[in-house]
# Entry
Amino acid sequence: MRRTVIAVVTSCLLVVSACSSGGSSSTTPTASEADVVAWMDKVCGAVDGTVKSMSDEPPIDMNDPSTLKTGLSDWLGTKVTAVDKSIADLKALENGPHPRSKELVTAASSGMEQIKTLLSDTKSKLDSAADVNQVVAAFTEMVGKAGDLEKAGADVQKKFDETGLAGAAQKANNCKGLQTTPPTT
# Structure
């Protein structure tokens, strides 16, 4: 269940933030379409690191409460590290070839920050948990916030469409890879 919710939440936010199925494909005359597509490929590549990181299950034994806290905390720590890398990679792409590149990157980074905050807050709660019930409660609370991340994804989607970069994303290989990543059910 943990894998399902985290994978779906991450996929909803990240796929929406990086790959749109609609919107305008107009580009500025100062940048070639190839330049914009290449830049968009890098944006999706930055997001893909987090998507791939979120696709695994925590290596824990649910029958061993003594390792539950440590296993989940360590697992969340690796996810926070992956999100940090995606945020840094996105930051480096703010000055892309499209006049609204920074606007899109800022929106995608904001979505990543929301994921990071959720994961970091959950990790902190797990680390301070006194018993297995508090560990389970912290993780359950994180799962309950999936709707907030979906809303953030919708906000990023709106910004994506507004920037006119949807067409470039449809042509970028890394974006195509994100689009075809099926959410785990």
Remarks:
- The radius of gyration is 17 Å.
- DSSP finds eight helices and no strands in the chain.
- Confidence is low (pLDDT under 50) at residues 1-5, 7-29, 181-185.
